[in-house]
Amino acid sequence: LSTQSDILNSIRSFFLLGFSTDWDQVIDTHEKSRCTWFVRVGLPNTFKLCQGLVVMFASFVIIVQSKGTIDLLKDFTSLMVISGFDNIIFYFALNRYLGDKLCKQARKIAGGEYTISNGDSTNGINVVRFTFVVILLAMFTGWGTLLRMQRNGDIFDSEFPDCGKDNYALAFKEFYDKKCYGGPLNTIECKYEGGDCATFNTAYPSCNGEDLAYLNNVEEELGDGICNMQFAIEQCDYDGGDCCNYDIRQSVLFGDGKCDGGLFNTEGCLYDFGDCDSFHRDFPDCALNDESLISQSYAGIILGDGICDGGSYNVDECGFEYNDCSKGQIGGDIFINGVISRFENAIDFKIWMNAKTTKLLVEMPYTDEFGNYDALGTNGTIAGYSFNSSTLTWIYDEKMDKERVQHKFGQYYAAISERMAVSGDGSTVAVGSPFYYEDNEIGRVAIFDFWGEIRHDHYVLNGKEDNARFGYHIDLTGDGTHIAISSPRSDSYSGKIQVFEKNEESSSEKLWTQLGTDIIGDESSDIGYYYVGLNSSDGSRVYFSGSSTQLLIYEFDSQSQEWIQQAIDDLVTLPFSVQQPDVDSKDLITISADGNRFAVSTYKPKNAYNLETEGTVTIYDYSPGESSWNRFGPTISSDENGFGRSISMNDDGALLAISAVDPNCDGKNRYEKNQYGGTLQDGASDDLCGTGSVQLYRYRPTNPPWRPFTRLPQIRDINSQRIMETEHQVMENMILGLQVYLSGDGSVLTVSGYDIDRDFGFVKTFDVKELYYIDCIIDSPERIGNDEQCWSPIEPEYTEQCGYKGGDCPLPPLIEGLNDCKVYDSGKIGDGVCLDRLPYNSKECNYDGGDCLDPSKVDEYVDEYPDCLVLYPGLIRDGKCNDWLPYNSYEC
User: Fold this and answer.
1) Helix pair 85-94, 100-111: axis angle to 10 deg
2) Domain map of the chain by residue range?
3) Strand pairing partners for 351?
4) Which end of the chain is more exposed for a tag (fewer CB within 10 A), N or C?
5) What pLDDT digit, counting tens, does each position of 315-334 carry?
6) CATH code of the domain made up of 416-581
7) Which residues cross the membrane (predicted)?
8) Distance between CA atoms of 441 and 782, rounded to whole angstroms?
9) Residue pLDDT, tens place only, 240-283
């Protein structure tokens, strides 16, 4: 079109309107001079010829550089407008769009006639044809040359000499599309992709250059809401914030040398900018990008700092929070500041855990509102924590300062914990004020819902006798509906015990009514001076200290509405540790929920009169037929110093937890203070050092009679440590076992302690089945998991219940046809020799693979033991102990 309308037509016009033609008539001029011809004919057609040549050259470039049909059509349309602009103006003039005068002139030109001589006509045609051929040759030659230069990148290289010919193909595709592709094109040598990356580079000035030439489609990828790990680098703002948001990157915690959890510890944030590389390397299966781990609730968690924060990191795949948590720990550590005196190393805090292990109360009698130790005890605090099952963490719930309680319920003479009781469900708290003064020193007890508002005075029980010290010791039942209160100085030091019952249906003034009559002590017996307790299920039994520190037990008779004393076959003397007025002995006495079993610890603090500190624990059981109490099995003892520091029994009395804390390492504990003045007893120690263990004992009817409560072996954690052993506390420099609590069903163990290095108290809660082999009942639990070689183990040590000797032995091999036969040496099955011991000679192992007879088919039986099925009944009761199963079993 350009060739036809501009180039060829202009050449044709030179011949048709040559100077020798009647050009003057065609253009309607009367002056036929060369000057006029040049101005009116020569110059315009020369311009038109040049225009055609320029358009033709531009078309070469457009065709060669075109990236698509649409762009090509757009460019050609533009060229057509330029090329045909004069024709368009002529058309407008011809149709009167530009006025009548121009219309007449245009029509005259359109309808004009002119003559050409034959010679001129022939010459003109030849010239035109020659010109057309030349133009065609020039066009194709030009196209070919440009195409070759374009394909070789010569044109690109001439424009961008330092960008590199190798990048031409990519540049041809990406240049001038108004989007920043990046890669090798977003460099100063390539003029930042020909200007396409100007906007992008303003937003991300460092996300370019030769070092980042591998990054492609940068403008589309960055900030698209999807993390692309290629762009998770500092120069590209971590994929425009898609991989690691701005707040994380600007935090002082980012890359501070500590492995922060949550959003910090993700692949997009480069594992806390390298701080968590070792964590990721050690635990590659920890799902760091899981929604449960990158939620806001994990802000502030530091992995590997020794503090268990709890939550989704506390799993095996994440190394139990990078070894911060112990295997089986529920929730995180509850750490408590300001609970130790700097002058005498006295650790002062106490815990109460509810039976379902969902609520925890921590009493800090000398901790002020800023978390500092206050020796005057003017701002003590009670803190509440509840377990969040969604985040698997303990949540600080509510606190109540001591001044608030004092204002409501009177003055305290001693630490609040010594006059405090909490119901088993954790909902009800009672605080005794035995020295409360109102005209006279009558004492009072306040009962309230800790998790709600403090109730009105209807929840306050007032003493009725001067100087009786009403509320000196108190205890609540599990549901908080019964309370026992001692008044040890009542009736001239005889003492009095009262039990009150909550009656929601009664009038508000009689919300708490006395159950039965008063229990009055003998003359000067001071009953209830050292201890008072209730069975948690219904409060039908009350336990309290009598004269000479004897433990007395009374049961409520519903018919007579009286409290009846129960007989005890052996005098139960409270330990020396309890025989102090300001010591709460609930840690040393524990009672089953139904009240049919209790245990007493003889924990011995260190002093000049008590050099041996190995305590004991004695268990007593109620015999309904005899209506009396009897010792249940031998006394439990240990060679560990401070054994029996705290004991706890579950509701059915089948599990018993006992802690041991060396009195030489626990500072100035409350058992080592002088009765008056609070100074340290002679010979006692206030040093702090790593100590503490917790042992768990289990009762089963099938246990041997010489150990009805059998100590359970501990399970080693992922670091092959037993966290409830003293060696672990020495290594960690902490004190463990100041208090222990078993949940009602015995599935959860709560332990308190003190971290010496970090200077705070703590509370830890554990799944019992993750700490102890709960069904492994053996004579020597210390043999389980002691790293000894596995030499032909047998039942009961080599069983699933005992972890196949605590992991010291390999798992049992599979035996073809005997899938349930779990033995260490499968070669002994069916070897022709009867191995008469379990598990070999069992039904599961086809009685040693057929080598042994079925004991149930042996003609001879053991008298008195019909369930004792053995191959050789004569071995039973033959004067020799055959210490293997089934001979040494409950059935035999």
Assistant:
1) 110
2) 2-152, 155-240, 246-322, 334-396+613-624+640-777, 416-581, 779-811, 820-892
3) 362
4) N
5) 889 999 998 988 889 989 99
6) 2.130.10.130
7) 46-64, 76-94, 127-147
8) 55
9) 988 888 888 888 999 999 999 888 888 888 899 999 999 999 99
